């Protein structure tokens, strides 16, 4: 339903919800264009102020940093407000992460293999062996066919 990839499953829950919100929202949630316009304005102001007195460039830089911080904070608030509209997706992500990472750790460190063996038999062990990356340092995600 959320159109997530296997790699998405390993991302932080908050970051994942941000990405889902950004992809499904049809509103402008970033202020990149406005930030670049702000940088252009402050560049011009810096030139004007610097031509009058070179010590004013530091003050202009401080004003620019303050304005940039304010835009970043506004962007965070915009995303937070939009996230509230996606409560169902948030609950789905939370449930998914809880199932895949119980107690915020890897599933195989919490769950026992015996219920899976009892349910699927030797075929489950064979499937694990077949898809195991041996000694590689990578994760594998096994998806049950419906």
Give the key terms.
146 residues, mainly alpha, 6 helices, 64% helix
| Terminal Cα span | 15 Å
Give me the number of helical elements.
6
Fraction of residues in helices?
55-70%
The helix/strand class is mainly alpha
Q: How many strands, what sense, and barrel or not for the largest sheet?
A: none
Give average pLDDT, whole number: 86
Oligomer: single chain
Rg measurement, Å: 25 Å
How many beta strands in the DSSP annotation?
0
Overall, the morphology is elongated
N to C succession of SSEs: HHHHHH
Q: What does this entry look like structurally?
A:
The protein is an all-alpha fold. The chain is built from six helices and no strands. The protein has helices at residues 13-24, 32-52, 56-84, 87-100, 114-120, 122-131. The longest helix is centred in the middle third of the chain and has 29 residues, at 56-84. 3% of the residues are buried. The model has no long low-confidence stretch (mean pLDDT 86).
Summarize the structure.
With 146 residues, the chain is an all-alpha fold. It has helices spanning 13-24, 32-52, 56-84, 87-100, 114-120, 122-131.
